[in-house]
Input
Amino acid sequence: MRGFCTDLSVGGLFVEGVALGQDVLTTVKIEFPVGAMAFQAQVRRVVVEPRGTGLQFMRLEQQQLALIQRYAR
Output
């Protein structure tokens, strides 16, 4: 599935255009200007309008955390 990240923080992200089931564990691949990185995440919120999914990052490694901090709002 492909979606558009409209909110990114060290805690997680919101992806518009993707609707997953509540509490689903998944791997999320995020394309950053410096390259892509995969993250383990769990669905915490499913929104109907606009259709999207709020995901919480699970077990971030130091390199992942540093990359998110660089690009998060």
Remarks:
- The domain at 4-71 is CATH 2.40.10.220 (Thrombin, subunit H).
- The chain has one domain: 4-71.
- Helices lie at 62-71.
- The two ends are 24 Å apart (CA to CA).
